[in-house]
Specification:
heterotrimer; A alpha+beta (about 325); B mainly alpha (about 240); C mainly alpha (about 260); A: 6-stranded mixed sheet; B: about 240 residues; MetI-like fold; about 80% helix
Chain lengths: ~325, ~240, ~260
């Protein structure tokens, strides 16, 4: 069922002349789960809307599904599923009415529709809520209804715009795990937009980091995290310590070592559950250096020497 | 004296509720107002959502022009109907040139309908536009990603979204038309709408008690219509009245 | 569907705009029956000015007085309702939400039956004013009340109290500025409604206390078509631009 989607040289200029997306080519293989990651205004939502057909690329850009050019195909005939930021559930329909809408529009017979809706309710753990009004649902339930509605017509491509944006931190993590399991089970091609790097790394089989309307880097979460292509990407995916010059490293590449070359002073200690994050000031470094410690907490103001694992040092020119 | 007044008042109510010509006037006024309300709302639903959702050059000027008639008194509207469809009206001139016969309908029920539509449409359009601008565009996009074409989107998303505004503006048009005197007064029409009947009973027949009874009746019918609209989800009826 | 909507919009726009142009044009043609080819003239405009100038003056005067009355009565009343809690204030609000249900004719009949016999009141312009105030007061009250409720006055006033403001300081410095949007909208509505009011005024006015709309009706009924048109043109020119300008000012203040 899953399709192979691609953007070929797609750019997007807004009516007021600002460029939302520079010419971009991206490939979304069948069954892949891609995270479009970046700060607000980086073009990630524009990319998603181009795939959906909610926005048209500038002249010359093409969108293909399984090699077929769908650039001119209106959104309602692309056969996609989409989960909107804020969910966009129809307030005049109950839960089952929302989930079954895509099937109703396609003219699926009532009995088959009801069977499918029941299946979706079970899949998204919403059993018994079919007759509820939308305003009687909690945030997490709404999110599940939005997902069930998008999946009910068995789309070949599932698009999610900040799917967990409106939820609190604990719910986000629970639903993230649920969605990951569901996507693996359905093996649907999925693309989701997020500004949360933890979400992108947990859910995506691939991450596309975007900056100012361009793709800054794409790759597996491990690749992008361990080998960022620029300071921007490195900083966006996690803490990046500046060791001076063009030398950077992740916190886990540094460890306390009485013989270490870096002479630093502890500035602050943050307890984070299983371990501690320690901020240190070192001469030559541009900003504070962060490391992670499992042992007893050092006192602020005490000196500490650090050694760096050379293989993990990143050389990122400005 | 007081007893005489009371007796007269009761007689007025009896007359208002039993005399066929008063009942006929009430029926005609209700039908006319309801018809105008329905047509105004239907047209405003199309025009209001079009103006709210599309951007084109000159749109702001057009919106300003369309809401201009809000400030016109009913008498002026009646006069405009005469200019359009009266004995020396434009429609008469056009039809005479085209088919050789002057079409004149300003002084009939059709003319009154036209006048009521004229002063109802701007208010309905303004209300629908405000409601359409408040609709969440993501709802429409969601319906489209699920496979709904333009007509389905209009039926399943836009119309339900506008429904409260449509009910509210329909009720207000109904209420305004029920009590409108100016347009009918100008057209000096041979249609006996209730406000005209009350006016003639009061000034020509000096039949105070019947006039008073009829205006209470008019108020009750109008109030009932507004209350009904508020019950059926038109919670904003009051806000736009 | 898009074409259909565009078509309907065009037709409706023509229906609303063409009559305005027609009446403006008819007011300056020498003879409407001959059309523009019969020549243009300002004769009718001057004639209207001679015959009906006093109705324009009276209408503007009554509208201004009506605004003053509704401000003095409506704003304090709205403030009281906004702060009051309990069943009766809510009931009062309910009643205020349906001013349309009381036909203007009924108001006029009631006033005449009640006050008609009292001295020279019946023939004085203030008799018309009373009708206008009764008709417009709910609109002012409601617009102001909505703004006051939207501004969460209770909290704002508590904050002002905590800063040591007296009642007078709070009312002038906090309540009025934060409700200004609603008061302004209500004022515009009162002016427009008063200037255009016909249903009540027709019965309340006498030949000496004729307002603009009643004068218009009089000209339509008893003068030739060109004079009625010229009067309509005068009405459009005199009243519409100030209304549009006021609306623009209101929009700016509201922002």
């Amino acid at each position: 069922m899953s399709i192979h989607a691609a953007l070929l040289g797609c750019a997007r200029t807004f009516p007021d002349g600002t460029v939302g997306l520079h010419p971009t080519t991206l490939d979304f293989p069948p069954g892949s789960v891609t995270a479009l990651l970046g700060p607000s205004g980086c073009g990630k939502t524009t990319t998603l809307r181009l795939l959906a057909g909610l926005a048209a690329p500038d002249r010359g850009g093409r969108v293909t599904f399984d090699g077929r050019d769908v650039t001119a195909l209106p959104v309602e005939r692309r056969g996609i599923g989409m989960v909107f930021q804020g969910y966009a559930l129809f307030p005049n329909r109950d839960v089952a009415g929302n989930i079954g809408y895509g099937l109703e529009v396609r003219g699926v017979a009532r009995a088959e529709r009801e069977r499918r809706v029941a299946e979706m309710l079970r899949l998204t753990r919403l059993e018994g809520l079919g007759a509820r009004r939308i305003d009687q649902l909690s945030g997490g339930q709404r999110q599940r209804v939005a997902l069930a509605r998008a999946l009910a017509p068995s789309p070949g491509l599932l698009l999610l715009d900040e799917p967990f944006g409106a939820l609190d931190a604990r719910l986000r993590e629970a639903l993230r795990t649920e969605l990951a399991a569901l996507l693996a089970e359905l093996s649907v091609t999925a693309v989701f937009v997020t500004h949360d790097q933890a979400e992108a790394m947990a859910l995506g089989s691939r991450i596309v980091v975007m900056e100012a309307g361009r793709v800054a880097q794409e790759g597996t979460p491990e690749q992008v995290y361990a080998r960022p292509a620029s300071r921007f990407v490195g900083g966006f995916l996690g803490t990046l310590n500046h060791l001076g010059g063009d030398r950077f490293c992740r916190p886990e590449a540094l460890r306390p070592d009485p013989q270490g070359p870096i002479d630093a002073v502890v500035r602050a200690v943050f307890f984070e559950g299983g371990r501690r994050r320690v901020l240190l000031r070192a001469p030559g470094a541009g900003a504070d250096i962060a490391i992670e410690l499992a042992g007893p907490a050092p006192l602020p103001g005490t000196g500490m020497r650090l050694a760096v694992e050379e293989a993990a040092v990143l050389r990122l020119p400005g | 004296m007081a007893a005489g007044w009371e007796g007269q008042g009761a007689a007025g109510y009896v007359a208002a509720l039993t005399e066929p010509r008063y009942l006929a006037a009430l029926r005609d006024t209700v039908l006319l107002s309801a018809g105008v309300a329905f047509v105004s709302v239907a047209l405003a639903a199309v025009v209001g959502s079009f103006l709210a959702r599309r951007r084109f050059p000159g749109r702001r000027v057009l919106v300003a022009l369309l809401t201009l008639p809000l400030a016109f008194p009913g008498v002026v509207v009646g006069f405009m109907v005469i200019l359009l469809a009266g004995r020396q009206g434009v429609i008469g001139g056009l039809t005479e040139a085209l088919v050789g016969e002057r079409v004149v309908f300003a002084y009939s029920l059709a003319g009154l309908c036209l006048g009521y539509l004229y002063f109802s449409l701007p208010r309905c359009i303004a209300t629908v536009m405000a409601a359409a601008e408040g609709l969440d565009p993501a709802l429409e996009e969601a319906a489209r990603t699920l496979g709904a074409g333009p007509w389905r989107v209009a039926r399943d998303v836009i119309l339900p979204g506008l429904a409260p505004a449509l009910v509210a503006s329909g009720a207000i048009v109904f209420a305004t038309c029920m009590g409108a005197l100016g347009t009918a007064f100008t057209l000096a029409a041979d249609i006996r709408v209730l406000p005209m009947v009350i006016y003639t009973e009061f000034t020509v027949a000096t039949n105070f008690s019947v006039a008073a009874a009829l205006s209470v009746l008019l108020g009750l019918v109008t109030w009932a219509a507004l209350a009904l609209a508020r019950m059926f989800g038109g919670g904003s009826v009051a806000a736009q009245a | 569907m898009r074409l259909l909507s565009a078509g309907i919009t065009t037709l409706v726009a023509a229906f609303l705009i063409v009559p305005v142009l027609l009446s403006a044009l008819a007011g300056v043609t020498a003879n409407w029956f001959l059309g523009v080819s019969g020549g243009l003239t300002t004769r009718w405009l001057w004639r209207v000015w001679d015959l009906y100038a006093h109705t324009i003056g009276l209408s503007v005067w009554i509208a201004a007085c009506c605004l003053a009355c509704t401000l003095l009565l409506g704003v304090p009343a709205a403030y009281a309702l906004a702060r009051a809690e309990g069943r009766w204030p809510r009931l009062a609000e309910e009643v205020l939400t349906l001013p349309l249900a009381v036909p203007g004719l009924a108001t006029a009949l009631g006033l005449i039956l009640l006050w008609g016999p009292v001295g020279g009141f019946r023939t004085h312009w203030s008799f018309v004013l009373v009708g206008h105030v009764l008709f417009t007061l709910p609109f002012m009250l409601r617009a102001t009340l909505a703004a006051m409720k939207g501004a969460d006055l209770v909290t704002l006033e508590e904050a002002a109290r905590a800063c040591g403001a007296s009642f007078r300081q709070r009312f002038l410095g906090i309540v009025l500025p934060n409700a200004r949007r609603g008061i302004l909208a209500g004022s515009l509505m009162v002016l427009a409604l008063s200037l255009g009011e016909f249903n009540t005024t027709l019965l309340l006015s006498t030949p000496f206390t004729m307002t603009l709309p009643v004068g218009l009706a009089d000209s339509y009924a008893s003068m030739r078509l060109e004079i009625g048109s010229a009067f309509t043109l005068l009405f459009l020119v005199l009243l519409v631009p100030p209304m549009v300008a006021l609306q623009a000012v209101a929009d700016r203040v509201a922002r």
